[in-house]
Design brief:
With about 290 residues, the protein is α+β, with helices and mostly antiparallel strands. It folds into two domains: about 70 residues; about 170 residues, Rod shape-determining protein MreC, domain 1 (Thrombin, subunit H, Beta Barrel), CATH 2.40.10. It is about 40% helix and about 25% strand. It has three helices and twelve strands, in the order ααββββββββββββα. The strands form two sheets. A six-stranded antiparallel barrel has the order 1-2-5-4-3-12. A six-stranded antiparallel β-barrel has the order 6-7-8-11-10-9. It is elongated, with a radius of gyration of 46 Å. It starts with a helix and ends with a helix. Belongs to the MreC family. This is Cell shape-determining protein MreC. Pfam families: MreC. Involved in formation and maintenance of cell shape.
Amino acid sequence: MKLLGNKRLLILMLGLICFIALMGLTLGKRERMTWPEKFITDTVSWTQGLFYKPAGYIAGFFEDMGQLRTIFEENKVLKQTLTKYARDTTRLNDLEQQNKRLQEALGFTERQKQTNNYTFRIAEVVAVNPDLLNNTVRINLGEKDGVKPNMAVMSVEGLVGRVKQVSSFYSNVQLLKGIDDTSDDSKAIAVTVKGKENESFGIIESYDREKQKLVMTKIDPNDKLAVGDVVITSGLGQIFPKGIEVGKVISREPGNFGISHVAVIQPFASFDHLREVFVVITPEQGG
C-alpha cells in the first residue's frame, strides 16, 4: 500500500514536470496566454514591482547623490579658479595702471629736470580728509624724507597744492580747491602765462566751489592774457617754484571798479582721485 502511494506521488511529480516543460516550450510560440498564466504572470510582476520600484528609487538616489557630490566638487574647483582669475586680473590691471602712471611720472620729472633744477620726490596719497570743508590729503613722505612745510605738490597733470603740516613720516597737503581755507599770506599763487612770462601776471588766491574753477585776480587791463592761455607759476614769492602748470584760461572780464581784470582758470590737476603726487624741492628748500 505504501509502495503504491509512492508510485502515485512519483507519477504526479513527473506529470507536473512535463506540464511545466511543455508550457516553457509552447509559451514563446503562443501569443495568447491562458487565464492561469495571466494570473501568475500578473501576480509575479506586481510583486516584483513592489520591490523593484523602491530599489530603483534607492539606487537612483545614491547615484544622484554621487553625481551631486561630483558636481559640487567640480563647482568648488571652478569657483576657486574663477576667483583666482578675477583676483589676478584685477591685480594685473592695477599693476598696469600703476606702471602707466609711474612711467608718465618719470617722463614728467625728466622733462622738468631738463628745464629747472628741481628735485621731485614721488609720494603716495594714503588718506583723504573726509571733511569736505577741509580740502587736504595725506602723503607718505615727511621730515625724514626732506619734506618741509610750504613745498609745492603736483601731479603729472599740474599743480595740486602745497605741504601744510609735516610729521616724521607723513605730510598733510592743502589742495588748490582749499586755497581760500587759510588766512596766511602763503595761500596766494603768483602766476604768469606760458610763453608770455614777461607780458602777463596775476594772483590765484581763491577757488569757486560751485564752478570748481580757480579765480585769477589783479590782472592788468593791458595784460596780454587771453582765453586758452596756459597759466603757470611765475616763481615770484617763496612758495611755488617757477614753471609748474596750473590750468587754462576759460574766461576773462573786468573786475570790481574796472581797476583790474579777473580770469577763470580750469585747473589741469584732478583733486578728487589722487593716487601719486610729487613734492617739488628747490635747491634752496633742499639745502
